[in-house]
Amino acid sequence: MSWYYVPWLDSKDNPDPPDPTPPGHCSAIAATGSWTTDGQIVMAHNNWVEYVIGQRWNIILNIVPENGYRIIMDALPGFIHSGDDFNINSTGLIVTETTITQYKGFDPEGVAEFVRAREAIQYSSSIDEWVAVMKERNNGGYSNDWLIGDNKTGEIARFEFGLENQFLERTNDGFFAGANFPVHNKLIKEETTYDSTILSTSPNARKLRWKQIIEENKGLIDVRSAMKFMGDHYDTWRKTEKAGALTLCGHLDEDEIGSPDMGWASFNPAGAVQAKATDGQLASEMKLWAIIGHPCGEPFQSEEFLIAHPEYNFQKEFLRDMPGQVWTLFGEN
User: How does pLDDT run across 15-30, given as a tens digit for each residue?
Assistant: First the structure.
């Protein structure tokens, strides 16, 4: 509502509305074929959001519906869909996404993303079926680059999904990475204010890091390496190994610049708050690895943070510590 509908509504009465700043919520990877150790799909995702919300993004749902396919996914309490979108269904689909930042566009006559996302993962058995459900009555709200894998065929796809422009790419031997950057120039020009040339922004810095880390690991990618990628702290702009707003494992609370292009001020208590990873074998068993808190395992201490940054004291009542955790395997034995 606040990132898509409200800017759309404001633009109707304001001839010069402010630039849209839907925040970038994730880093993600999908790989298959010669890029992985066994030729099967590997998919992983970490969720970027304000810590005060992300500390509560700690649910793994295992749903056996009366109709459609069984689903395992992470979620916020009370959600009927994942929200940050890491889904596996019993027909072999594995789905995740990263948000398109600085996106603008909304259709108030369309259907909300959470309705379409839940329907797509519950009733689709192929990439094409999933895409068709998502496209029907698309409202533009929460526009993403979706990464989709079909475990039956080993095929992965990237579906860049705007309101006016959609692009579907697919491969049985390759990779797709996401870090809140749009890919296709037509969508960038017509539906965003995004500038792909500024390498100091978080999406562009992480895009470059994905290219480096994946090419260095061609043929070596498995679920363990994907979990490691989720906690990566190399900053391609500052050329240093230090977590911040520009790293795959985001720690905006440690960054003096923040990520203004995504609407986050300096030292904002936000970043990667949890992560998930799976591969072809695990997905066939409806299993995934997950971690709550920073994917790197480093803790966040709320009291210490608020003493250093009292401008965020308005969150004091609700902001919790994020203790360092370890990755855990979820799924029925």
Answer: 787 776 677 779 999 9
pLDDT digits (tens, 9 = 90+) for 188-223: 999 999 999 999 999 999 999 999 999 999 999 999
Number of domains in the chain: 1
Whole-prediction pTM? 0.96
Of 16, 36, 12, 14, nearest to 277 (Cα)?
36
Q: Which domain holds residue 321?
A: 5-330
* CATH number of the domain where residue 192 is located: 3.60.60.20
The DSSP output letter for 185 is: H
Q: Hey, which residues does 75 pair with through a beta bridge?
A: 59
Structure tokens at 199: 């390498």
What is d(CA 154, CA 41) in angstroms, rounded to the nearest whole number? Answer: 6
User: d(Cα 14, Cα 19) in Å, to the nearest integer?
Assistant: 12
Write the DSSP string, 86-135: -EEETTSEEEEEEE-TTB----TTSB-HHHHHHHHHHH--SHHHHHHHHH
